[in-house]
Amino acid sequence: MADLGAESPERLAAFEARIAAGEKIEPGDWMPEAYRHQLVRMISQHAHSEVVGMLPEGAWIPRAPSLRRKLILLAKVQDEAGHGQYLYHAAETLGVHRDELIAALLEGRAKYSSVFNYPPLTWADVGMIGWLVDGAAIKNQVMLAQCSYGPYSRAMVRICAEETFHHKQGKEMVLTYARGTAHQRAMAQDALDRWWWPSLMMLGPHDSDSPNTPQLVRWGVKTKTNDQVRQEFVDEHAPELLEVGLEVPDPELRFDPADGHWHHGPIDWDEFWAVVRGDGPLNAERLEARRRAFEEGRWVREAIAAHAARREATA
Ligand code: 3HC
Fold first, then answer.
1. Which residues pair with 255 in a beta bridge?
2. Cα dist from 293 to 34, 289, 299, whole Å
């Protein structure tokens, strides 16, 4: 990353004036090191989440109940791989190489979204992940599409268009099950019981426990707080789940006509932080799967490097 000069109060003030004016910060622009650090942290976690997020649903591709469902799931999982590539590219505009980020993930030093450490036990989970997990991701990513950093904001615009398809296909699948046989309805309810709370948790800790949010909001990386995005998610999904006859696994869930919002019960933050620390149901399996894929793909990377070297030598 070119050294664009030391930080000074004047430079910081000019930078913040640009943010306040709604300008996009681009890779060659001066930015505080803390701004760059925050973006690398968030974008790498986001990219890792997309790639690790392929694992829960990828496992169900060979077991899809119909060719149509298999094709839809194949397309979704391929989209997630592409999202990971966009985001690694966005991170690289900040002067970090994806090899560093991937090494951090494989060594257990990097985070990815907590939600992908939960097991998809039945085919109905695939629909519920699409409806709830991608639904939560869309709320977060529509917000990030307004991000002050140009490459991240533009990556979000492209990703949100594809996430909308992911969300719709998941909702359509759950609606089919919720209106199907008693066994199908039971499968949909079982999946909701296991994915509702992890979907609320994936949007991050309460604002009071979110050390990064104040700086991210100040510099326009986040335009909403974790709790504001979570409220948008609950307001959209709670009534729709209830409408199709499913029971949201939260006895304290209620609608308040005074403020027009759905209010959920307490989140188990001990569970959340345990999963973030690596003690979730599938954290070890997820990292092992990524390490195995990295080793199995070594020959491809070496072949590409050898081909590039030969072309350069003969150019
Ligand atoms: N999983 C893992 N770690 C989490 C987390 C989660 N769900 N939520 C928060 N954390 C971590 C943060 O990374 C931070 O740790 P760090 O400082 O060591 O990085 C710590 O907990 C404190 O949380 P903060 O609220 O202060 O952190 P942020 O301000 O970064 O907010 C966030 C958390 C809202 C997830 C934010 O990082 C963000 O918007 N990230 C980009 C979007 C993203 O990563 N989404 C993941 C899902 S992608 C996806 O779902 C793919 C789709 O196709 C299904």
1. 262
2. 33, 6, 11
Q: What is the pTM of this model?
A: 0.95
Q: Which atom of ligand 1 is nearest to the CA of 137?
A: 50
Q: What integer is the mean pLDDT of 267-282?
A: 97
Query: 250: CA distance to ligand 1 center in Å?
Result: 23
Pocket of ligand 1 (CB under 6 A): 41-42, 45-46, 49-50, 53, 80, 111, 113-114, 133-134, 137, 140, 163, 202-205, 210-213, 216, 226, 276
Distance CA 217, CA 219 (A): 5
Q: What is the whole-number distance in angstroms between the Cα of residue 202 and the centre of ligand 1?
A: 7
Name the residue ranges covered by the structural domains of the chain. 9-314
Tally Cβ neighbours within 10 Å of residue 108: 12
Query: For a substitution probing ligand 1, which of 85, 207, 276 has the most ligand atoms within 8 Å of its CB?
Result: 276
The pLDDT value given to residue 2: 46
| Residue pLDDT, tens place only, 80-139 | 999 999 999 999 999 999 999 999 999 999 999 999 999 999 999 999 999 999 999 999
What would you report as the CA-atom Rg of the chain, rounded to the nearest whole angstrom? Answer: 21
What average pLDDT is seen over the chain? 96
Residue 130 and residue 167 in contact, taking contact as beta carbons nearer than 8 Å: yes
∠ Cα 205 206 212 (to 5°): 65
- H/E stretch holding 261 reads strand 261-263
What is the domain class of 9-314 according to CATH?
A: mainly alpha
User: Which residues make beta-bridge pairs with 279?
Assistant: none
